Amino acid sequence: MVITSPTLFARARGGDRFWKRRRVVSLSAHFYGRKRNCYTIAIKYVNRALRYNTLARRLRKSDVRELWTTRISAACTELGTKYPDMKIMMDDSSIALNRNMLQNLAIWEPRSFRALALLTKSRQEVGLNSLEGPSPAGVVTRGML
Amino acid sequence: MTTKTWNLFWGSNFVRAPLQNGVGRYVQQLQRITFKFCKTHGGSKGMREYIEKELIGFARENPGVVVYVKPRRHRSPCLKAEYLNGGEEYISTHVNTCEDIVKWVEYLRGRSGYPVERLRKYHHTDYPSIQGPWTPWIHRHPGINIKEYPCEELSAVQPTEISATQKLLELYEQQKQQQEGVGSTTS
């Protein structure tokens, strides 16, 4: 049955206030005090938290890269070399391993990382392909094979 | 809703397969699927069409799946899938065409029972290391295991810089090799 009266033109607006506030307050569940329960207070801090989240996406990349570098440097120091020297050696030998892979090797495949460190040390003592001096022990170069 | 909200609410997890499914034999994870619809309401039209045309084909192709059909008055149509590991998926098919429902059913057929979550990494391995992970003793000489302590050798000071005497000796060695090299090329 169609209602033919002015009430037809009444709009049902809003009704979303509770759900809108719930969406915001659910994000502040771990905040302190009124910031976690009261909407008008929580919305400010939730906005700040979300803003920090978007900014942190860029920071995370540099933070993680720094962590990787720290790990590789630590592993190099344990084996008696330095990361800059290792980078030079890898450059010359065209070993294309990035920081991510190097730190994974240092943690999960330590003997492979030790091989890289030995290569670095050998290269420093006498150049690998140089004709001066004896060939370093325990290192196999392409020319030998 | 932002992506961050979505991920916080729905959770995140690593890639996994129930009971190493697919490593050996692949077992279809869908256990039963329920088609709920109304016989008269317009929103269930697509669902009714699907049941008339496609459902029997689906049931024949998937003998391991139990199919339930529930006609319920005044209810909107939906699909409910249950999986072998206890997971469930609910999809509302209100005012969906038959083709849409075909696609949804195919989607449910291929899922494992795990909920939809952000994947923290797209790879997973139970054996991340072949050589064995790093320990503090992996690069140390195994002879330290049988040393008697106190040991003078190990308690000695580790020099970080080479002494002047050592440096001079190294320089001497280098010079000697250079001279030998020069001698060998000229001769």
Write the layout of secondary structure elements.
The complex is a heterodimer of chains A (145) and B (187).
Chain A (H helix, E strand, L loop, with lengths): L16 H11 L11 H40 L4 H10 L6 H10 L1 H16 L20
Helix pairs in contact in A: 1-2, 2-4, 3-5, 4-5
Chain B lengths: L2 H8 L1 E2 L16 E8 L7 H9 L1 H7 L4 E6 L6 E6 L4 E5 L5 H13 L7 E2 L32 H4 L8 H23 L1
Parallel strand pairs in B: 1-6, 2-3
Antiparallel strand pairs in B: 2-4, 4-5
Q: Could you characterize the architecture of this molecule?
A:
- The complex is a heterodimer of chains A (145) and B (187).
- By secondary structure, chain A is mainly α.
- Chain A has helices at residues 17-27, 39-78, 83-92, 99-108, 110-125.
- Helix content of chain A is 60%, strand content 0%.
- In chain A, helix 1 runs parallel beside helix 2 (39-78) and helix 3 crosses helix 5 (110-125).
- The radius of gyration of chain A is 31 Å and the shape is elongated.
- Chain B has 187 residues and is α/β, with parallel strands linked by helices.
- In chain B, the strands form 2 sheets. In chain B, strands 3-2-4-5 form a 4-stranded mixed β-sheet, covered by helices on one side. In chain B, strands 1-6 form a two-stranded parallel sheet.
- The radius of gyration of chain B is 35 Å and the shape is elongated.
- Chain B starts with a helix and ends with a helix.
- The model of chain B has no long low-confidence stretch (mean pLDDT 92).
- Classes of the chains: A mainly alpha (145), B alpha/beta (187).
- The A-B interface holds A 23, 26-27, 50, 53, 75, 78-79, 106-112, 114, 131-133 and B 1-2, 4-5, 8-9, 128-134, 138-139, 177-178, 181.
